[in-house]
Design the sequence.
């Protein structure tokens, strides 16, 4: 079969690897000049690092198996994570259930309630029972107003902006599942980060696809999927020199977000209605190389509504900084609506806005600490999955013969992630083999 794959992110690369391995003629078209999509990396000094912070959980079986299959298991390194929350002018350690018990920010009774809530959600197998309620409604009914305002509202608002009341409860349920399962017998969270970054996996997949006679065309954007008699016929492509071509294919797999897919092909109205129910947030991610450490934690969530960012992920508090020439690398992350004015700001403008808030976290912080910076804006970074999504979720195999879609909004009830992108690639491969 001649197969076109739209997108060289982890989902597209995984599907292409599987399908080329079993003899299909695979071509990937990627609009950007690099592979890896949201998990792609950049160089800082001599090191590759993700444009947006990435780690894996113990439960990420699909991607861990892919590493194994590619003979790369030795690259998977596991580290003890450390988590804290900034609230009411202070950094509060929230790494373990014991830390939660000591969290004097909220009354003792509420701390016990939080631990019991996590346990209850962890033990809940049938997430469909909580599918018809938003995380906002469920959580605000379970804890006191103060606990909700301090812990959950900033979390939901920070991640989902103006859509924070819309996200379905399965999102929160899935977070608890992965985070609790990633704890060892001492309740210590253990996270995985591959030696040499995710770039090694991405390069290996590219190499394997080419070895299996597959092609990857960078800076080639698919602009239209053309059908005939309800079957895929060809795709229109435009390259970076604006030259256009039309190529015939038996199968097209799109890994592009719904808003993009919607422009590529006129799908059935029911499918369009479902696609339109999913909104996306963009991410603004700043990477700073510092000559000092900002905090002692890997993951610092900001639980204050007036902060201009959502969290600080200090990469070198997870991975030893000796691996990065003894420098401290941290990400400042922010999810914003697609029309948010922060998306228009330059690095200089944003760092000026961020600096007073970085000083609140560590009053010694000074812009002189910054040795290097990188700055990324990521579109379609986080889909917002509404309530009762299982009833409207679009199948991976669409009703047009030969057309498949596997994107971050088709992962459910789990939240999107590289593991589920690999899983999408695997599932689409199996559907193609079956048909
Ligand atoms: C801030 C942030 C932090 C994250 N942290 C983690 C983490 O810790 N752990 C984890 O596992 N995951 C994490 N993720 C999620 C993870 O990166 C994604 O879920 C995964 O990489 C998505 O892969 P994908 O292939 O489905 O989509 P994408 O990576 O979005 O790939 C789709 C590709 O399609 C291309 N494309 C789109 N339209 C066209 C077109 N018309 N023609 C040609 N090409 C096109 C795009 O350029 C893109 O490269 C994070 C994501 C973000 C944004």
Sequence:
């Amino acid at each position: 079969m001649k197969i076109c794959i739209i997108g060289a992110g982890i989902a597209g690369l995984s599907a292409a690897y599987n399908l080329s391995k079993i003899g299909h003629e695979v071509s990937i078209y990627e609009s950007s000049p690099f592979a890896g999509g949201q998990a792609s990396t950049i160089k800082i000094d001599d090191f590759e690092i993700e444009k947006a912070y990435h780690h894996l959980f113990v439960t990420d079986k699909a991607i861990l198996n892919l590493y194994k299959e590619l003979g790369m298991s030795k690259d998977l390194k596991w580290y003890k994570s450390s988590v804290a929350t900034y609230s009411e002018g202070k950094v509060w350690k929230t790494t373990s259930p014991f830390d939660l018990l000591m969290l004097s920010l909220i009354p003792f009774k509420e701390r016990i309630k939080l631990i019991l809530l996590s346990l209850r959600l962890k033990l809940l197998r049938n997430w469909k029972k909580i599918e018809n309620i938003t995380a906002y409604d469920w959580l605000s009914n379970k804890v006191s107003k103060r606990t909700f305002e301090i812990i959950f509202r900033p979390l939901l608002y920070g991640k989902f902006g103006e859509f924070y009341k819309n996200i379905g409860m399965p999102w929160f349920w899935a977070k608890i599942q992965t985070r609790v399962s990633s704890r060892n017998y001492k309740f210590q969270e253990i996270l995985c980060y591959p030696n040499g970054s995710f770039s090694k996996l991405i390069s290996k997949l590219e190499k394997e696809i080419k070895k299996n006679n597959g092609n990857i065309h960078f800076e080639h954007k698919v602009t239209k999927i053309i059908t005939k008699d309800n079957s895929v016929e060809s795709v229109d492509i435009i390259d970076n020199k604006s030259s256009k071509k039309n190529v015939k294919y038996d199968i097209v797999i799109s890994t592009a977000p719904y808003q993009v897919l919607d422009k590529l092909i006129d799908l059935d109205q029911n499918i369009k209605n479902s696609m339109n129910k999913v909104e996306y947030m963009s991410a603004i991610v700043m990477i700073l190389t510092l000559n000092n450490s900002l905090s002692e934690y890997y993951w610092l969530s900001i639980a204050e509504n007036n902060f201009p960012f959502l969290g600080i992920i200090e990469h070198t508090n997870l991975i030893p900084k000796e691996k990065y020439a003894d420098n401290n690398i941290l990400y400042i992350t922010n999810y914003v609506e697609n029309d948010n004015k922060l998306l228009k700001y330059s690095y200089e403008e944003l760092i000026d806005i961020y600096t007073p808030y970085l000083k609140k976290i560590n009053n010694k912080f000074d812009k002189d600490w910054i040795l290097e910076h990188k700055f990324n804006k990521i579109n379609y970074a986080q889909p917002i999955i509404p309530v009762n999504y299982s009833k409207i979720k679009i199948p991976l195999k669409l009703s047009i013969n030969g057309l498949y879609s596997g994107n971050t909004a088709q992962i459910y009830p789990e939240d999107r992630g590289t593991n589920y992108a690999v899983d999408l690639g695997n599932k689409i491969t199996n559907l193609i083999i079956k048909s």
